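testing teh design pipeline on a random one, pls ignore if ur not involved
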């Protein structure tokens, strides 16, 4: 027995020594990262980084040193360091700089591989400073297809001025006019400059088809001529959806019938809208028949029951629900039922969430106390490397990336309690959907942080809260992101008398849009609001956040 006890002690001491040695080395790497370049011992740093290449902090440190050496034109030594960095270790916003430094080093070493790296940078990150700069440097070496890829990246990220400035690099005037059509008000002028035999004509015609019935007919005829039935049907379906949510029910009927004149298979989205159309028209018998028929498509059994009660003018309280559910069984309409009624549920745990302690977890805890952004980058990197258990234990906001948005282990509260307490579940429900707990999230609309504030709202909120010298980067700090969300949510709760459906919709599409919709429409139930609201993103958003809210509320 004593022998076994001694063996356990020896093993424990060995593990402790190994971890302590790792922590000490990571401490040294962090010190190098934080040091001025003049204070860095290059030989010692190289050895330390190489020994700890499995950590993101080592890649960041290698990049820092390589960039300094590149600036000093010591490209040979810079190459030694940049090779130690792994592109997967960098957060998305840091990848353009890495590619730029790597490409610059290779170019000055006369390594032809530099062009491949610069092409990757120009095409995938043309909207960024370094991607745009690189494009202008290498465009003579880009194929026309590669140029189009870069411009599409700028378009997708709404960097329209960059698109305009890069058009001079294109050889095909049809391409120039196509991109001008995308970013200009006078679309018809540029459309008329595109040759009908150009590869851009059909794409341009697709854009114009939404503006003029003549172009729509030409586009549909062109698709049929190409025998592109899939695109043809998708176009008709999208036109039907847009017409419905604009309240143009005659056009909805027209596109609905056109769709089915070319297709025998029922489409679930169109069948749901047909039910809503009957409901809105007060053809309740037809609505009931269509609702029952739609049941075969629905993944939410409570959706059918809920709308049945509305058709029959019965109380939602009459819907039977169980006492407990698994997280995977919580649906948007079940969430709406428990929100609107006095019923409550408990949530059964399906499986334990990972809880593993080791080298990675200890290093993450260490980094959190030194530099949160480094800890975040490290956590995201270690998830990619499969260290889910340790990341989830030490940095759950990064560890949730091991799971889908619907998994029970993704319902964490990584930033602690929120005061007042009634805000806590609301804020986490929103945060989960807005950023999936990424403190450095940036959307295409420049909304930033955990709770995704756009600049206009951010600066207004800062003024109301009383924060002087506010800058949008302050919202990368979790405490600030939560503080701003509390302020805005309190405003919305007051505005909509505490109705969370309208609050969630306002958080996504703005309170002005929600108020206008409510003023214009005779909404008798929150489900009517959710399904008839004209913005698809908001309809989906409200359902998901309601589900999040129910799970957070009853998971405790």
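output:
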């Amino acid at each position: 027995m004593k022998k076994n006890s001694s063996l356990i002690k020896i093993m424990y001491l060995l593990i402790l020594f190994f971890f302590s040695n790792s922590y000490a080395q990571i401490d040294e790497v962090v010190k190098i990262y934080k040091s001025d370049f003049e204070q860095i011992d290059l030989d010692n740093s190289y050895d330390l980084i190489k020994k700890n290449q499995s950590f993101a902090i080592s890649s960041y440190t290698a990049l820092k040193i390589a960039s300094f050496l590149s600036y000093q034109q010591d490209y040979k030594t810079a190459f030694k360091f940049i090779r130690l960095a792994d592109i997967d270790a960098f957060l998305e916003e840091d990848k353009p700089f890495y590619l730029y430094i790597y490409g610059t080093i290779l170019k000055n070493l006369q390594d032809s591989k530099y062009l491949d790296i610069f092409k990757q940078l120009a095409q995938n990150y043309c909207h960024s400073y370094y991607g745009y700069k690189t494009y202008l440097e290498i465009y003579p070496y880009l194929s026309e297809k590669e140029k189009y890829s870069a411009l599409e990246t700028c378009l997708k990220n709404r960097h329209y001025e960059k698109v305009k400035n890069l058009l001079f690099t294109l050889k095909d005037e049809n391409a120039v006019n196509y991109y001008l059509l995308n970013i200009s008000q006078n679309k018809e002028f540029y459309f008329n400059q595109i040759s009908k035999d150009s590869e851009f004509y059909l794409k341009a015609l697709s854009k114009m088809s939404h503006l003029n019935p003549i172009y729509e007919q030409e586009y549909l005829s062109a698709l049929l001529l190409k025998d592109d039935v899939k695109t043809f049907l998708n176009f008709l379906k999208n036109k039907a959806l847009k017409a419905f949510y604009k309240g143009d029910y005659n056009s909805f009927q027209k596109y609905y019938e056109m769709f089915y004149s070319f297709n025998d298979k029922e489409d679930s989205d169109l069948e749901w809208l047909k039910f809503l159309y009957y409901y809105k028209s007060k053809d309740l018998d037809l609505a009931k028949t269509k609702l029952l028929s739609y049941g075969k498509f629905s993944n939410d059994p409570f959706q059918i029951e809920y709308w049945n009660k509305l058709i029959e003018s019965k109380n939602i309280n009459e819907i039977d629900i169980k006492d407990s559910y698994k997280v995977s069984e919580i649906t948007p309409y079940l969430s709406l039922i428990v929100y609107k009624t006095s019923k409550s549920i408990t949530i059964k745990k399906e499986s334990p969430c990972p809880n593993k302690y080791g080298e990675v977890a200890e290093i993450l805890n260490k980094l959190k106390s030194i530099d949160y952004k480094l800890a975040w980058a490290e956590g995201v990197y270690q998830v990619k490397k499969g260290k889910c258990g340790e990341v989830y234990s030490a940095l759950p906001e990064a560890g949730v990336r091991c799971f889908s948005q619907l998994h029970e282990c993704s319902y964490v509260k990584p930033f602690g309690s929120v005061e007042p307490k009634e805000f806590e579940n609301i804020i986490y429900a929103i945060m989960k959907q807005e950023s999936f707990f990424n403190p450095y999230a940036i959307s295409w609309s420049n909304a930033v942080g955990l709770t995704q504030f756009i600049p206009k709202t951010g600066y207004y909120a800062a003024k109301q809260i009383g924060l002087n010298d506010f800058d949008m980067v302050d919202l990368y700090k979790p405490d600030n992101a939560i503080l701003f969300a509390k302020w805005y949510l309190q405003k919305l709760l007051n505005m909509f008398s505490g109705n969370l459906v309208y609050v969630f919709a306002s958080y996504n599409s703005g309170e002005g849009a929600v108020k206008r919709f409510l003023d214009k429409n005779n909404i008798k139930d929150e489900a009517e609001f959710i399904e008839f609201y004209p913005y698809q993103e908001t309809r989906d958003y409200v359902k998901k956040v309601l589900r999040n809210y129910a799970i957070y509320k009853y998971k405790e």
